[in-house]
Design brief:
The structure holds two protein chains of two kinds.
Chain A: E1 2-3, H1 5-13, H2 15-20, H3 24-44, E2 51-55, E3 61-62, E4 67-75, E5 81-89, E6 99-104, E7 109-116, E8 122-134, E9 140-146, E10 151-155, H4 164-179, E11 187-194, H5 206-211, E12 216-222, E13 227-233, E14 240-242, E15 245-246, H6 247-264, E16 268-274, E17 278-282, H7 289-298, H8 310-320, E18 325-331, H9 335-339, H10 342-352, E19 354-360, H11 363-370, H12 375-400, E20 404-408, H13 413-426
Parallel strand pairs in A: 3-10, 13-16, 13-18, 18-19, 19-20
Antiparallel strand pairs in A: 1-9, 2-4, 4-7, 5-6, 5-8, 8-9, 8-10, 11-12, 14-15, 16-17
Helix pairs in contact in A: 4-13, 6-7, 6-13, 8-10, 11-12
Chain B: E1 3-5, H1 16-43, H2 64-72, E2 76-80, H3 83-89, E3 94-99, H4 106-113, E4 118-122, E5 135-138, E6 146-147, H5 153-158, E7 160-161, E8 167-170, E9 176-178, E10 185-186, E11 188-193, E12 196-201, H6 209-212, H7 217-225, E13 230-234, H8 247-252, H9 258-276, E14 291-292, H10 295-306, H11 310-329, H12 337-348, H13 352-360, H14 367-384
Parallel strand pairs in B: 2-13, 3-4, 3-13, 4-12
Antiparallel strand pairs in B: 5-8, 6-7, 8-10, 9-11, 11-12
Helix pairs in contact in B: 11-12, 11-14, 12-13
The chains are: A alpha/beta, B alpha/beta.
Chain lengths: ~425, ~375
């Protein structure tokens, strides 16, 4: 039940007779009339259980985009439904005006549209639809909330895709350069073709030329069908906020850019998001389907306040990979956490595979190192210098195991990882 | 309005004419209801009041029995609530009954003291100043029954009465006190003063429907009140503004009447329910955990500061400077002290002892030396790669 302002106003009008004749009988008569009017009104209101609400499914969208939630309100009663319908969502759905005044004649259907502008990645759920059904006089309303399940999947923003065209251009450049007969690591035999003037004489395949009348050269192309495994750390280190967003977001951006690049380069990309357990897994998807699968898998992933289980990561890597591959750890170089086993795992994995470790660093800490105004700031700067030295030492230890270490701010991490991948590919170290 | 019609077109009572008609019906209906209530309340049969000692209250604490008997006996009873009404109602061949005169203000009591005819006071309090000074309040007293113990004809006729506390006591030799236990105190007093006959009942309980039938209460009350053909029954209203000619008080006083207050309270409750009722439950947001990344570093800085580890902080600053300069100066992690000092001397042109004391000198031991060291390091760094 819910009162309306009209009912309150009606009660307030009773002050006129009560002031004119200030006696109990006046108050009682007015109260009885008022309550009677309300009862009659509520009895004529369409009961909420006679209202059927259905929800149209909402397609997944990228973080930052807008969408709409559509409800169908069907009145099964034989009276006209006058109602306010509230389409409630989690606050992070960023709903626009979500209270809709409706007038639905008997046995008819109305559609209600609520704007959504989610401000968070992940799976966002609808909370229920509240129907407040007014009587014909608009004095009293029946109210109830019906569960109408609904889910909005907000995919990662992938703002780093603006770096993709330039990296793809570099990839094509590499392709073109190596297509001219540079033989060596990182290339594989492509085909034989006739010699044209300008070709490197060292590329002539004498044996093939002898079989034919023409001079034939061999051509080479970059290696293809290499394997890339992205290990995304979702442990407590990923929960650290760097600027506006947590470290996990930088990791997701890097994973998406690297996947987009590597799949265009003809490599096969797998992903595993892991802390104590495996949170998300993408495996064996190739081509155009990869990016959407990846975004879907990463959408609900959130950082957990637990220590990462690096032994589990090592097991995962062993199970997934049989041939030599590039294993990219998207984690953080933090002295305490890395002692817990990252170095030994990186060394173990590094024996069979190429390891790259990417860490999004805190730009705030770099500022702290420079701020030396007060004594307190001096001590903070000293602590930041010490942390930086420890991280540099760790990076050094990792590099000595054969790993590549990428340390950048959260915005620059994704392109840096992509560049590092291209460099490895160019050097034929995949 | 973000609604879309899917099926039938709008029904015609949603049109402008229909809406105007609906509004008109509303206005007419509400006005009619208001008018009916006002008319009924004004002219309709008056409902019994529930004020104690009122001559139209049939309850235990009312006094309708006494009022009706007097009317049956041909006494015209005027029930008044204000001093001005009482003054307008009294006449020479009439009786004025004042219930609980001590609740009146001094101005009201003075105005009532000079009325012609008989005066009957029902109830005495500590303060009767202005009205009379011949009787006074006396606390305590058993319910009785009490015998008359005096020569007054009304008291004699009553014989015995039942009345509890309080009692009254005489302050003047002419006053005759009856129904007392010992000399001076009693429950009924009478005297004559300047041609006006005064009678005082110690408590207005004697008038009530509950006690009127007990012992000789009825005889005493009816004889006291029924001497003249007209009776003004004055039950003071606390909201009476007699003698207070203040407009502000006059205008606000009606609001203080209990029925008005009750309606206002109901209105307040209705407003609270109206505004307080939510359209559906509050929705919970399962927020992910986010920790500020610099917290650990800042915590470490606080730890250094709290324990005053100036040497440790100085060493960190020196090491940081060397690490930053290593790249531009072509030094490696394994470069020794002489190599570092030499490279910096070449880059900045500073004397070797100066650079050496800055980088490898004694550790700072207080805030001042730490600040000096930090400044020195910063200056040297800016000389190596000028911005």
């Amino acid at each position: 039940m819910a009162l309306t302002g009209r009912a309150v106003g009606l009660l307030a009008l009773g002050i006129v007779p009560v002031l004119l004749v200030p006696r109990w009988v006046t108050v009682a008569t007015w109260a009885v009339l008022w309550a009677g009017g309300l009862t009659v009104d509520a009895a004529r209101a369409v009961p909420v259980r006679a209202v059927q609400v259905r929800r149209a499914p909402i397609p997944a969208l990228r973080h930052g985009q807008r969408t709409e939630s559509h409800l169908q309100v069907f009145n099964t009663a034989s009276r006209v439904l006058r109602a306010v319908v509230r389409d409630a969502w989690q606050p992070s759905a960023g709903t626009g005006p979500n209270r809709h005044r409706l007038r639905v004649p008997p046995e008819e259907l109305r559609r209600v549209r609520t704007e959504l502008h989610p401000w968070r990645r992940g799976e966002i759920h609808a909370a229920g639809v509240t129907v407040r059904s007014f009587g014909p006089f608009g004095l009293l309303a029946r109210q109830d909330t019906v569960e109408v399940p609904g889910m909005l999947r907000v995919l990662p923003e992938f703002s780093s895709r603006r770096h993709l065209p330039s990296r793809l251009a570099r990839l094509r450049e590499m392709d073109g350069r190596t297509a001219v007969h540079v033989r060596g690591q990182g290339t594989e035999f492509d085909s034989l073709r006739e010699y044209v003037i300008g070709d490197d004489v060292r590329a002539i395949d004498w044996r093939a030329s002898a079989r034919r009348a023409d001079v034939v050269v061999r051509t080479w192309r970059p290696e293809r069908d290499r394997r890339v495994l992205i290990v995304l750390d979702t442990s407590r280190l990923a929960a650290a906020r760097l600027g506006p967003a947590p470290r996990l977001e930088a990791g997701i951006e890097a994973a998406l850019l690297l996947s987009a690049l590597a799949t265009r380069a003809g490599d096969r990309v797998d992903l595993v998001a892991v802390d104590r357990t495996v949170r998300a897994r993408v495996r064996g998807v190739q081509g155009a389907a990869l990016m959407s699968t990846m975004a879907r898998a990463l959408a609900p992933v959130e950082a957990e306040l637990v220590e990462p289980d690096w032994a589990l990561v090592a097991r995962e890597v062993r199970e997934r990979l049989s041939q030599r591959a590039l294993v990219v750890f998207l984690t953080a170089l933090e002295p305490g956490a890395v002692e817990s086993g990252l170095i030994s795992v990186a060394a173990t994995v590094g024996r069979d595979h190429q390891v790259m470790l990417a860490s999004a660093e805190d730009p705030e800490e770099h500022r702290m190192r420079r701020q030396r105004g007060s004594t307190a700031e001096l001590f903070d700067a000293a602590a930041a210098e010490r942390a930086e030295l420890e991280r540099a030492a760790l990076a050094e230890r990792l590099i000595r195991t054969g790993a590549r270490v990428v340390r950048r701010g959260p915005q620059e991490l994704a392109p840096a990882v992509a560049d590092s991948y291209l460099a490895l590919k160019a050097a034929g170290q995949l | 309005m973000s609604t879309t019609t899917i099926a039938a077109p709008a029904v015609d009572d949603g049109t402008r004419a229909g809406r105007t008609r609906t509004t008109l019906l509303w206005v007419l209906g509400v006005t009619a209801a208001l008018a009916i209530i006002v008319l009924l309340a004004w002219f309709g049969p008056s409902a019994p009041s529930d004020d104690p000692f009122a001559p139209d209250n049939p309850e235990d604490r009312g006094a309708r029995a006494a009022g009706q008997i007097l009317q049956d006996q041909g006494v015209q009873v005027s029930y008044v609530r204000t001093t001005s009404a009482a003054l307008a109602s009294v006449r020479a061949e009439g009786t004025l009954l004042i219930v609980n005169p001590h609740t009146l203000r001094p101005e009201q009591r003075e105005a009532l003291a000079d009325v012609p005819g008989r005066i009957v006071l029902a109830g005495v309090g500590r303060d009767l100043a202005g009205l009379t000074d011949r009787v006074a309040f006396e606390p305590g007293g058993a319910p009785g029954p009490h015998a008359a113990n005096c020569t007054d004809p009304h008291a004699q006729a009553a014989g015995e009465i039942v009345a509890g506390a309080p009692q009254l006591t005489s302050r003047h030799p002419e006053v005759q006190v009856c129904f007392g236990d010992d000399a001076g105190t009693g429950r009924y007093a009478t005297w004559s003063q300047d041609g006006t006959s005064w009678q005082v009942l110690s408590t207005p309980e004697l008038l009530t429907n509950r006690t009127l039938a007990e012992a000789g209460n009825a005889a005493l009350v009816l004889r006291s009140l029924g001497q003249e053909p007209h009776l003004t029954w004055y039950l003071p209203d606390p909201a009476d503004d007699y003698g207070i000619a203040d407009d502000a008080v006059t205008t606000t006083l009606p609001l203080l009447r209990p029925p008005v207050l009750a309606l206002l309270a109901a209105l307040a409750a209705a407003v609270m329910y109206w505004r307080g009722r939510r359209l559906g439950p509050v929705v919970r947001e399962p927020l992910p955990v986010v920790v500020k990344a610099t917290e650990t570093t800042r915590g470490r800085g606080r730890l250094y500061r709290r324990h005053g580890t100036h040497a440790h902080a100085g060493a960190a600053l020196r090491a940081g400077t060397v690490a930053r300069l290593a790249g531009p100066l072509g030094l490696t992690r394994w470069s020794g002290q002489e190599e570092v000092v030499g490279a910096i001397c070449r880059a900045t042109g500073r004397p070797a002892e100066h650079v050496e004391s800055l980088l490898y000198g004694p550790p700072p031991h207080d805030d001042a030396s730490l600040t000096a060291l930090a400044q020195g390091l910063q200056t040297m760094e800016s000389e190596v790669h000028p911005r």
